[in-house]
Amino acid sequence: MIIQKIETWWVRRNKCLFDDKRKGKSAMDWDVLVLKLTTDNGIEGIATALAARSGNVTEAYIMDNIAPVVLGRSPYDREKIWHELWNIDRHLTFFPVYLPGPIDVALWDICAKAAGLPLYQYLGAYREQLPVYASGLFHPTEQEYIDEALYYKSKGIKCYKVHPCGPCEMDMQIHQHLRDAVGDDFQLMSDPVAEYTLDEAIRVGRQLERLNYVWLEEPFRDFELYKYTQLCEALDLPIAATETTRGCHWGVAQVINQKAADIVRADVSWKCGITGTLKIAHLAESFGMNCEIHTTTMNYMDIVNLHVSCAIRNCKWFEYFVPEEDFQFPMKGWLPIDENGIITVPKQPGVGVELDWDLIENNCVSYKKLENN
User: Long-range pairs for 248-253 at CB < 8 Å and ≥24 separation?
Assistant: First the structure.
């Protein structure tokens, strides 16, 4: 079995109509690239890629730099292909952080389908379900955070992660008023995506300890390891980091070595696919740490995240980015979350969900195809 064909569809998300409160305007309206690898025996591997910089850039990287490495190769050579792409990246290609993960996902999808197994079982199943936490966007008012948390609590979800928009004094007000609104039996996390000083982060962290939050995430840029080490030493509250750390597991290893996080983060878009995410999760496990999988901002790839999360032990949550309609495109259907806030992994072979190909075709800006000669 070899990769015979690679196809890409650059899809303009903001041409699509979303039935939400923003009258069709997605809060994150960057384009998406759909990727399909087809083998010589007709098995298809599917993934989606961010086109946040530009659809042209994502498409060009895949077709000019990645396709020549993959075409004519066996999808079972995933590890070798993965390392070859790292070498290409080092030799001045400098892939965006969200590439080449999708290629790796498509290769795993092919192999799981060839085995007739859902992806999580092909990886080695540990579980079938996880509790979700609703993870909101930045909001201009405090009341919007409260309303959002209460809405998802009413839907049976038992945890909410707030992204307060700063400064830290305002963030602390939001933290307090959220706890007052949802009560003590509802779990909360905070991810300010901030540039706090060390003193500010310690002050915020101590407040979150008093309010019984689950963790504090990314109060500094991920490369500020000294500040993270000091913060972890100062607080009992777990500190989550490495969401944007470059260098896959090699980068995360430096964070663990410097005791600069209590929880590490990874996902199949920003950490070089399933292969890279598994390396990070297993590295963290060897140090007794959890690897909490981060949203890809695309429901299809978040289903891939779910498969990975169900194939490892050291992950407690599924990040449910809300409002879901902003991130559903171009997957067909909704994420399989029940009334108790539990998500169940698909049981069909491979990734196990479908894309909306009519929507993709109707909103396609550019279609490209390369075949193995």
Answer: 248/86, 248/272, 248/276, 248/279, 248/280, 249/276, 249/279, 249/280, 249/283, 252/280, 252/283, 252/284, 253/283
